[in-house]
Amino acid sequence: MGQISAFLQRKNIVISGKRYGVDALGAMAQGLFCSLLIGTILDTLGKQLGLAFLVEVGGYCSAMSGAAMAVAIGYALQSPPLVLFSLVTVGYAANALGSTTLDGGKGAGGPLAVLFIAVIAAEIGKAVSKETKIDILVTPLVTVLTGVGLSALWAPAIGTAASAVGDFVKWATVLQPFWMGMLVSVVIGIALTLPISSAAICAAIGLTGLAGGAAVAGCCANMVGFAVLSFRENRWGGLVSQGLGTSMLQMGNIVKNPKIWLPAILTSAITGPLATCLFGLQMNDPVSAVASGMGTCGMVGPIGVYTGWVNDVAMGAKSAITAFDWTGMILICFVLPALLSWLFGLLLRRMGWIKEGDLTLD
Fold first, then answer.
1. Are 25 and 197 in contact (CB under 8 A)?
2. Which has the closest alpha carbon to 212: 257, 169, 175?
3. Do the Cβ atoms of 73 and 115 come closer than 8 Å?
4. What sign has the CA pseudo-torsion 267, 273, 275, 279?
5. Cα–Cα dist 297/293, whole Å
6. 254 or 42, greater pLDDT
7. pLDDT tens digit string along 264-306?
8. Does the pLDDT at position 108 exceed 70?
């Protein structure tokens, strides 16, 4: 065991929940953002503005999402260059095969397949890196063959399983929009603020439709909620960094005083059911479910909802984008998170549960 531990340490192979569940998952979300999400934004802008060039660039970005995710994961695992570059092929294969099911249908497991397979391929590639005199051949061959081989064996099954989970959540949300709207909103909102990736989770199970709308509500409740709640401590810089960046910035303060999370959580428990039961807010972005877990980060969540509207109108599933649609999105994504979090925060401050400085960002 001592020799194995020494070898793993020498190769910088750290088998831990943090390395794979936090570092790798978070990096994968960044890879998704830099490829699929940016591609979706450019595609939407191009179609709305009649700029074919932006649509074309958006297509290129989206096509490289698997490769971008895998390279991001490899970077988080501190892979050497030959392993990192070889993960381009691994990510492409895992994403493509994970986007199918065992019966050849369309699956939702591309990102999840990339996560599992890229981690294994990267670690095996690191294990053989620089162990031979022909490293330039051995390391890429081992990394690529491991990754593509596992993709062929596992990715369709992962795609099938992810689709099944996503379909169940979406089915349950339609069946019980109030309770599932609340549950999805709270859980995904919490995941967004934790040092894990809500975007990757939503993408992994294909969380769209009414459940995707509830996820958007929960993410916005945390991001806008913390931005407004902490305004007296962090002013405009904190408003922008949390409202358009990430509420994860508050994790250090949450560890010190978990009660500061209550206003955002309570807000998400209210806006989730409102999104599903009153406004019928849905995430029908035709490209990716990742926008469901982004909230107001770069305005990806609201843009995804709007893209879904445009797609529904084009497909004939929706006659037009109405004033009620816009009212619902503005209330769920911006107004209610700001107002409710501020009110809950005011109450908790008066109760002494939140004290001056508890929300100050370093």
1. yes
2. 169
3. yes
4. negative
5. 9
6. 254
7. 999 999 999 999 999 999 998 755 677 888 889 878 889 889 9
8. no
Alpha-carbon gap, residue 202 to 154, rounded angstroms: 20
* 100 phi, psi to nearest 5 deg: -120, 165
Side-chain-facing half-sphere of 17: CA atoms under 13 Å: 2
CA–CA distance, 28 with 74 (Å, rounded to integer): 9
Residue 287 CB: number of other CB atoms within 10 A? Answer: 21
C-alpha span between 173 and 195 (Å, rounded):
26
Residue indicated by tokens 């509500």: 217
Phi-psi category of 352—alpha, beta or left, where left has phi over 0 and alpha has psi -120 to 50? Answer: left
Can you tell me the distance from the alpha carbon of 362 to that of 359, in angstroms, rounded to the nearest whole number? 10
Domain boundaries defined on the chain: 2-162, 176-351
Rounded CA-CA distance 216/193 in Å is 13
Query: In whole angstroms, what is the distance from residue 354 CA to residue 254 CA?
Result: 11
Q: Are 71 and 31 in contact (CB under 8 A)?
A: yes
Residue 84: the pLDDT is 97
Query: Are 89 and 149 a contacting pair, CB within 8 Å?
Result: no
pLDDT band, residue 226 (cuts 50/70/90)? very high
* Residue position matching structure tokens 């399983």: 161
pLDDT digits (tens, 9 = 90+) for 176-223: 999 999 999 999 999 888 866 677 778 778 788 999 999 999 999 999
Q: Is 158:104 a contact under the CB 8 Å cutoff?
A: no
CA 231 to chain centre: 26
Q: What share of the chain is helix, strand, coil (3-state, %, to 5)?
A: 80, 0, 20
Can you spell out the DSSP letters for 193-238? Answer: HTTS-HHHHHHHHT--HHHHHHHHHHHHHHHHHHHHHTHHHHHHHH
Q: Whose CA is closest to 121, among 98, 92, 91?
A: 91
Q: Give the pLDDT confidence score for residue 129 in this predicted structure.
A: 95
> Which pLDDT does position 11 carry in this prediction?
92
Q: Are 161 and 111 in contact (CB under 8 A)?
A: no
3-state SS, residue 293: helix
Provide the whole-model pTM. 0.74
